[in-house]
Amino acid sequence: MSVSSIPASPRRGLRERFLNLINLRADEQGRTLLMFAFYTATSMGILWLEVSSAELFLGKYGAARLPWIYIFSAGVGLGMSVVYSWLQRLFPLRWVIVLISLLMALPIPIFLWGLSVESFTFLTVFLLRLWIEAIYNLNDLNLSVTANQIFNIREIKRAFPIISSGNLLADVLSGFSVAILMRFIGLQNVMMLSFGVMIVGTVILYYLSVNYAHAFPDSPKRQAQDVESYQSRQRLKGAMRQYVVLLFSFFVLAQMLLFSIEFQFFQQLDRNLEVEAIAAFLGIFSGLLGLIELFTQWFTSSRLIEREGVFAVALVLPSVIVVAGMLTLAASFPILGGAEALFFGLVILKFFDEWLRYTLVATTRPVLFQPIPDRVRSTVQSWVGGIAEPLAMGGTGVAILVTIAVANRIGLDDVIIQSQIFLTGTVVAGLVWFGLMALLRTRYLNLLVQGAERGLTTFSDGDRRGMKKNLVEGLEKNKSEADKHSYIDVLSQIAPKELGEVLTPHLANFSPGLQQHSLQVMLDHPDPRYHQSVRTLLTQPRISPEVQALALRYVWLAQETYDINELRPYLSPDVDAVVRGTAASLMLRRGNINDRAEATATLRKMLVNERERERVMGCQALGEADYMESLSIYIDDLLQDPSLRVRRAILEAIAATQYKKYYPSLLRALQYKSTRAAASDALTRLGDEALPMLEALATDEYKPEALRNQSWQVIGAIGTSRALELLIQNLMSSWGPTRRQILRILLKLYQETGVKRSSLIDNALDQLLGRSGFEDLLDTELAFVGQILAAKLDLGQATTVEERLLLSALEGLEIDAIERLFMLLRFISPANAVQAAQASLSGSVSSWAKGLEILDNCLDISSKRTILILLDRQPDADKLKRLSLSTPLIAYTPLSPRDRLRQLLDLRSLLSDWALACCFHLAKAKHWNVTAEHTLALLQHPTGFVREAVLAYLAVASPRALRDILPRMQHDPNELVANQVNHLINTYNLEPEP
């Protein structure tokens, strides 16, 4: 029975549909429900207090005193921030969140007592409003800290809209109920009810902290030590500090806009409504707004954030503020509406600000803290939330008072003009929001990538001139020989043409090993200016033969004039073979006919010498000469020489002299592990001349896969424009391991030149593929994965060995396709970000979530949503359902297991050899019919065990057809298949072919 055919209970199906409707996963529902209940209860209590206090405050003080509330609330908020941080140093975080929740409710009975004493009423109303403004931010901070502990970065995007909708549900319930409650039970009883509801929220939070204790740190957070460690290990003074400062600025700006719009809103209510009508208006306003916000959070926010991203969604609010503010500003002039238009415009502005702030913006808030390391995240959150928001509140209050004072002083005391000034400031602040979000987005992605990469950087990112200076200083210091070898290697990469200038002053003092290494890298760019310095090495009494040979070669290649007679003493049999062979090769290259004859005689003696070293040096000398025709009679014997060093040396000589007659020998040498490296180097040296025979070998399906892969590697090592064109063309037409191998080669070339932006690889990729070509390749991989998921689903539970083998093979194909997908993404997206995301996906749940978040922010392709769904950790059935809805590339129609197997065989060119064999073994075990087309095509498959599986299937499914086929396969090159054919011939008593 397939997975899709298992019936679900009506209750379970209804729950799953509901969770899908609100975009929530089954494993997230428990945590989300508890957080939602806690936030709803606490927010309802605070909202009852706010609506009650608004009527009291406007009646006692009026809207003109609101700026003073903002200023004093800033002090209270800062004090609460200090308390929050102080508590974290004394208690574990799971205790702190409960204590803070309790602390928010405890002063309410005191306020009730103050309101009952007439002499304290005036002060109590002020303090009550002050406390409400402070605990709003404290409640949101407590919620954000708790959510970041028990949800990862991807879960927050889905769960937090539901959780934060608790405030919206509280808006609805308290908004529609407050007028009734005030009328029937009175103000004091409403406040007492709010106290009770907030205590209920605290109890729920306590249960959550106990039930999910594993998500919280067990020990108190020593803030001072944490910050100090954080600064040293996470570079708080660098990118992380910039991000935290931007985050701080973002929250300050967002809160300043909130309080600015709130002040203007209450100012308009105070001027246009009676005091008694304000509470009723606010209740209805909050209730209607809460309903809209609630539906937005449940059915829109999480999907919108998952689809468009955090930063695109966060820009909706400032966009609306700017547009609505400008329209209200224009309509506020007397010719268009004046005071009445200003009132309605600010009500609408307040409506949109509340709606979008407590839905879209509130949902993005905890996500913005995710790039900060877990161990210090709550500290930074309490610092930003506890300081930035009170600072914004106080700053807004001061700004409002100063603006009013300055306007009155210069004669702009008209209330409409002052409202227009405030509106203008609101619009400007909305525009600043755009710039802040652009900067935040860049650093958000960079920090996620940094965290995934664990601080690893590439060499090419360094300052080359500074690095060269450090390397030169390292050569001069008393460093170990191994260090100096490393310095020389790095110098040869970053400054190859300046090696003579750097190394020749040190040659005389270097050890023989360092002298040899230095001369080897210097020979790539011989410079006449330094040949005299190198010549002095030839006069040293105890110079090693290897160094002497290299020095001799450098001197003769670097100098412009020479005397051939200087080489003759080195041809003596008493001279070491490496020096003698070098001198002979130089004489073959630069001498006249007689000189070349003398050198040839010397090399002939070396090539037939009994000693291995003589033959090896003779072969190397052949490669250093311009031609080897006169000594070619020895090549066949040298290729069969018992010494591996000799065989490798003659392969290098064939390539160095471009001796075409023996090119096939280079290809044969690729087959053997002992000579593979030498043959690869030799073919690479041939360049474009080797490409046709390498391509023929690489695309021959009947050759071993390792040999074909080696051929592709050599083509990549050649790296010319023609080689790149050949690789890219085969990338578009190949599949499976071949495509993966070509992608690896192209990626290596692309990354090696990624910083230099070499025009060779870039132009080849742009002209032959381009971005659209890469996206087409991505689409083919995604469509293929869709077919694999459908096959895994339709083939059902693995109850037999054959089913388990096929499902395992399909999972391997899925993993390979995803690996190729990541390779393709690195060409069209930031490579470091994609690589970091790929590494994160193989880690813990939290690490995997960060990997998806990196991809969500760094990919800019049409199939981004499909890729994120594919990489999500969901059951195959759910994943396939979502994929079918998100992209036309994947259209899933349930099939019977037999029909799905046939469809897999239709895709035989895309399946691995092992998957094809497993298909036939399963068909044999289940007695399923396979079409003749599939059978005949795969009897010709280049892999032996695939042909063996087809024959085993035919022996059960169609013995008559098998009798006709067996005689033609009797001489199969694969021993396994040949033995099987002979066994079947004997079984059926057939006459074997002669």
What is the level-2 CATH architecture name of the domain at 22-451? Up-down Bundle
Number of distinct beta strands: 0
Can you count the helices? Answer: 46
N- and C-termini, Cα separation: 49 Å
Main sheet summary: none
> In terms of quaternary structure, what is this?
single chain
Task: Name the beta content range.
Answer: under 5%
**So, the CATH homologous superfamily of the domain at 22-451?**
MFS general substrate transporter like domains
Short description:
The chain has 994 residues and is mostly helical.
What layout of secondary structure does this protein have?
Blueprint (H helix, E strand, L loop, with lengths): L9 H12 L7 H32 L5 H25 L2 H13 L1 H10 L1 H33 L2 H32 L2 H25 L11 H12 L4 H34 L2 H34 L1 H5 L1 H16 L7 H30 L5 H36 L5 H39 L10 H13 L4 H14 L4 H5 L8 H11 L8 H8 L6 H14 L18 H14 L2 H15 L4 H13 L10 H5 L4 H14 L5 H7 L3 H14 L4 H8 L6 H14 L2 H13 L2 H17 L6 H10 L1 H26 L5 H28 L2 H11 L3 H14 L5 H8 L4 H11 L10 H10 L6 H14 L5 H8 L4 H14 L1 H7 L9 H13 L7
Helix pairs in contact: 2-6, 2-7, 2-8, 2-11, 3-6, 3-15, 4-6, 4-8, 5-6, 5-8, 6-15, 7-11, 7-14, 10-14, 10-15, 10-16, 11-14, 13-14, 13-16, 16-37, 16-38, 17-18, 18-20, 20-22, 21-22, 22-23, 23-24, 23-25, 24-25, 25-27, 27-29, 29-31, 30-31, 31-32, 31-33, 32-33, 32-34, 33-36, 35-36, 35-40, ...
